[in-house]
Structure formats: C-alpha cells, structure tokens
Design goal:
The protein is α/β, with parallel strands linked by helices and 348 residues long. Helices cover 41% and strands 17% of the residues. The protein is built from twelve helices and 13 strands. The strands form four sheets. Strands 3-2-1-4-5-6-11 form a seven-stranded parallel β-sheet, sandwiched between helices. β1, α1 and β2 form a beta-alpha-beta unit. α3 runs parallel beside α5. The radius of gyration is 19 Å and the shape is globular.
Length: 348
C-alpha cells in the first residue's frame, strides 16, 4: 500500500524539494501551506519534475493555526506520517516580532499535534534547526550538546522539540524524529525549484545569488576578525537535495523501527568560511561578487558545524554533495529564475 504523507509548509524551499523526493520515492503527498513565504508555482514545478508520479501530489491552502481546517484535512485522508516544515524562520524578524513567531510556530504546532492525535496519526518528522545550539562552546555540535537558543526563532524550535519530547513521554504510541538542519543551500539540479526569499534575504547564499544576477549591488560580510582561516565566520552548508533525502531516511526509520523521540543533525560535518563560499560561487557563476567588509553582528557565532555520526549510523544517511555542487545548482536556479518564482510573471 502506498503511504500517505502530509507535508506542512511543503511549498517552501526545503518543503518543495522534500515533496519531490517523496513523490519520486513512491509516496502520496498532501501539501498544506498558507503561502505567506512561499509560492504555489513551486508546487506546479514539483509536479512537472515528478512526471509519472505527478498525480500523487495534492495541495490544500490552509494555515496550521486554523484547527478546523486541519481537522477537515485529516478527516478526508488517513495519513501514515507528517513532515512538519511550516513556520516562520527569519531570525531578525523574530527579534522584532516575537509574538508573531510564538503564535505561528508554537500555536500552529500544538494544533497539528492535537489533530494528529485525534486522528490516530502519531508519526512525525519535525524540521528543527542548529540554532538550538546557540553559541556552541566547541565543535562539532553533537546531538547531546546542551541547548540554548539565542533568539525567539531559535527558541520556538527549542520549545517545539521539548513539546514533542513531552508528548511522546505521555503517550508511547508516538514516534517522533527531530531533524536539526545546519545551513541549507543549493537547488534542485533542474534549476526549476530553489530558494526564493521575500524581501531582503536573511541567509548568505540567496543574498550572493541576488548580487550575481544584479538585484543587489554588493554583499556585506559581517565579521572579518574571527579566529578562522580567513577571519570570516564558519558554517556547515548542506545541499538542499541531501537535506530532502535526510527526511526520506527519517521516514524509513519511523516506519521500520520502534523509537520514541530521537534527534539527528543534518549537515556535512565540514565547516566552510563565508569567503570560501563566495569564492566557490564566483567560480560556479563566472560572476564577481563585490564585497563590503563590516564589523561582527551581535548574536553571530564564530564557528558552527555538525557532528553527523549519529545520522550516518542510525539513519544510514550522509550528505553526498560538496560546496562546488551547491554553488553550481544555486547558480543554475538563479540564472534561470533571477527574480525567483516571480521571474515567470516578469517575462510576460
């Protein structure tokens, strides 16, 4: 029997790539998304890329804070598991609007867990984040590190992890996997789906990409005096297709084994400086990225990268792609879609 998977936030960057991998893996996928920070065009493209499996994708426009809408969705389909991406994710905005983040991310997740429980669907893969490590005192970050989020966005991830642990302790039927992502970059090799942030990008690569296509004049590099090989911050960048495959591995684990609430890092286990990433992108795109050097930003950690041993051992998953492929695929997406999903409208 084909399994039915509900994907919340499935029109977003990581959600759309995961939906595609799920379809190609033979799953039926129902996407729920309120399109606040995503585009329905992404799902049309996922359908095209899924070719023979395109009919196994359906989309419902709904907000996970709307419990009645969720209840209706669960009443109409019996889901085997849920992958939960839906949430707001801009660190800066979360500092300015903490209540918006707590309302959206926490209330939405509590609704989802309650409705899942009501309908006897107790398997969940949750999209957490390396931000729950705060400013780690050492690297690589292992799953056992003490948790301390440094901003409201990170705290919503941390609180949701705690809620999931409590839910599972209270009811042993639940099986939950928490995936802590490091820095997702790149795009599907087709160049048809990729990251399309609204407004000013919060992350390095979409910003670099917008400079490369001429949408922004330069990249500001924050912090050039860190204790790293070139003075710039170090992060663990992971190709979004590797990340999507990590979710398939997590689902397989949920379906095949008895587990309570487990947590896994998804990263490459390698640190890359900001300047190394910019150089790799310049090489992939043939474009020069003008840089403006600036002081450190408050709240930025110096070096953060993942220990990926546990995911390798227990999920049988490891990242396949390096920064060359990440930059190549990012540039392919950017050059085909300089204005993201709106490029389709701009050409007309």
């Amino acid at each position: 029997m084909t399994k039915n998977i509900l994907v919340t936030g499935g029109a977003g960057y990581i959600g759309s790539h995961t939906a595609l991998q799920l379809l190609q893996g033979g799953y039926n996928v129902v996407v729920v998304d309120n399109l606040v920070n995503s585009s329905e065009i992404a799902l049309h493209r996922v359908k095209q890329l899924a070719s023979d499996f395109s009919n196994n994708l359906s989309y419902i426009k709904a907000d996970i804070r709307d419990k009645e809408a969720l209840d209706k969705i669960f009443s109409s389909t019996k889901f085997d598991a849920v992958i939960h991406f839906a949430g707001l994710k801009a660190v800066g905005e979360s500092v300015e609007k903490p209540l918006l983040y707590y309302n959206n991310n926490l209330t939405g997740t509590i609704n989802l867990l309650e409705v899942m429980s009501d309908h006897g669907c107790k398997m969940l893969v949750f999209s957490s984040s390396a931000t729950v490590y705060g400013w780690p005192k050492e690297v690589p970050c292992t799953e056992e590190f003490p948790l301390s989020a440094a901003n409201p966005y990170g705290r919503t991830k941390y609180f949701i992890e705690e809620i999931c642990r409590d839910v599972q302790r209270s009811d042993g039927e639940w099986k939950i996997i928490l995936l802590r992502y490091f820095n997702p970059v790149g795009a599907h090799p087709s160049g048809d789906i990729g990251e399309d942030p609204l407004g000013i990008p919060n992350n390095l690569m979409p910003y670099v990409q917008q400079v490369a296509v001429g949408r922004r004049p330069h990249l500001t590099v924050y912090g050039t005096d860190y204790n790293t090989k070139d003075g710039t911050g170090v992060r663990d960048y992971i190709h979004v297709v590797d990340l999507a495959d990590g979710h398939i591995a997590a689902l397989n684990k949920l379906f095949d084994t008895d587990l309570g609430c487990e947590v896994y890092n998804l990263g490459t286990g390698k640190g890359t400086t900001v300047l190394e990433m910019v150089t790799a992108f310049e090489k992939a795109s043939g474009k020069k990225i003008p840089l403006v050097m600036a002081g450190r930003r408050p709240g930025d950690a110096e070096v953060v990268y993942a220990s990926t041993e546990k995911a390798k051992r227990e999920l049988n998953w490891k990242a396949k792609y390096g920064i060359e492929e990440m930059c190549r695929d990012q540039w392919n997406w950017a050059s085909k879609n300089p204005y993201g999903y709106n490029s389709a409208n701009d050409e007309e």
